[in-house]
Design brief:
The complex is a heterodimer of chains A (310) and B (72). In chain A, 77% of the residues lie in helices and 0% in strands. Chain A is mostly helical. In chain A, helix 7 runs antiparallel to helix 8 and helix 12 packs antiparallel against helix 13. The termini of chain A are far apart. The chains are: A mainly alpha (310), B mainly alpha (72). Chains A and B meet through helix 4 of A and helix 1 of B.
């Protein structure tokens, strides 16, 4: 421990270390879904206001990532996947991450309120609170359903984007929220089955470790079935249309088949082909979410030419 | 060891300072452009009182009053 603290004092964090605290990879998904939520809304937004709004949502998401890394530094240190993060590797002091997280949270919420409206800012504040407090501090270490409820934090961005444009919440924005919310469990648990994790050593209750892989396979199938009506349902709202419906039907059959394969097999079969079906399901899940939101974007983009929508 | 030696630490600190400078300048540009866009979106400047950037219907002179402007 002594040489680690010596290392900490001799290092001065670079700009990139602070940027890494904001979880840039997570941010890219947030930016994309928030942008779709904003663009598909029926109220046009000035491009610069839209840019500022997306920036605020991205910075807010980054701030909650910094708060998460501050709180979870103890378990990040134990797990191989996260041991190289700025705090456990000693490049950034925990207090710096806390300060950066709190400052950027306040900054992004206030700027979003000034640039757009109070509802959008309130939703952003709630998202940061939900991820940092409800998920990181409370659920993550106490229940194997952590990622199900925590997934709500990742599902809010399109709803915030919609609120930026319309100043309200509607069936469409709730369905976009539900799409990401229901998608998170099969997406994450497919990964949890094939990645050899050390969550157990860190004391984080992951479903694969508390209830085993068999139960996890059942959960993947269950959430996948519940996801289908949400994804198809969006097609019949004001933001849907034939392009979205066709895309959704294909993607849902594809993802259903991938999840069904994961559900059907047992551990010996999975280990025999080195978790090929689980890896495939995870890969399909990435296309699934990205293409659903791309289809919504296409509907909105074609609307001025009378092609999008019903 | 000479006091002028450029340590790796100084390089990092300089990078951080320049980064912060860039962020602050970007923030200034952001607030300025946001102001320009917000003011332009208000529409016809002759129809509102400027002090709080909001339309004040009560302050729009009625037709027939001295110095009245045509109302819609």
């Amino acid at each position: 421990m002594t040489d680690v603290s010596l290392e900490q004092t001799s290092h001065e964090a670079g700009m990139g270390d602070y940027f890494a605290l904001l979880k840039p990879r997570v941010m890219s998904l947030v930016v994309f879904t928030a942008l779709v939520g904003l663009v598909v809304a029926p109220v046009p937004v000035h491009p610069f206001i839209a840019f500022v709004a997306i920036l605020c949502i991205a910075v807010g998401a980054g701030a909650s990532g910094a708060l998460n890394m501050w709180w979870d530094a103890d378990i990040d240190r134990i797990m191989r996947r996260t041991a190289k993060r700025p705090i456990p590797s000693g490049r950034v002091q925990p207090g710096e991450a806390l300060g950066l997280g709190l400052t950027l949270s306040a900054f992004s919420v206030i700027l979003l309120a000034l640039a757009t409206n109070l509802l959008a800012a309130g939703l952003l504040a709630f998202t940061i609170f939900f991820y940092a407090v409800i998920y990181s501090m409370w659920l993550k270490r106490s229940t194997p359903q952590n990622i199900v409820i925590g997934g709500a934090a990742g599902a809010f961005p399109p709803m915030i984007g919609w609120a930026v444009a319309t100043g309200g919440v509607s069936l469409e924005s709730i369905l976009m929220f539900a799409l990401i919310f229901m998608w998170t469990p099969p997406h994450f648990w497919a990964l949890a089955i094939f990645v050899k994790s050390d969550y157990g050593n860190a004391g984080v209750p992951m479903l694969t470790e508390t209830h085993g892989r068999r139960v996890t396979r059942n959960h993947i199938m269950g959430y996948m079935i519940a996801l289908v009506p949400v994804a198809i349902g969006i097609a019949f709202t004001s933001i849907g249309g034939p392009i979205y419906l066709a895309t959704a039907v294909v993607l849902n059959l594809w993802f259903l088949r991938a999840c069904f394969r994961v559900w059907r097999r047992d551990e010996t079969q999975a280990e025999a082909d080195n978790f090929a079906a689980e890896k495939a399901a995870f890969k399909v899940s990435l296309y699934y979410l990205f293409l659903h939101f791309s289809a919504l974007l296409a509907e909105a983009a074609l609307r001025p030419w009378g092609l999008g929508g019903w | 060891m000479s006091i002028k030696v450029e340590h790796e630490l100084h390089r990092r600190r300089k990078g951080r300072n320049m980064g912060l400078l860039g962020l602050l300048l970007a923030f200034v540009a952001l607030v300025f452009l946001l102001t320009v866009v917000k003011v332009q979106e208000l529409g016809d400047a002759s129809k509102f009182q400027g002090y709080d950037h909001a339309v004040q219907p009560a302050l729009v002179p009625l037709e027939g009053e001295a110095g009245a402007v045509a109302s819609e």
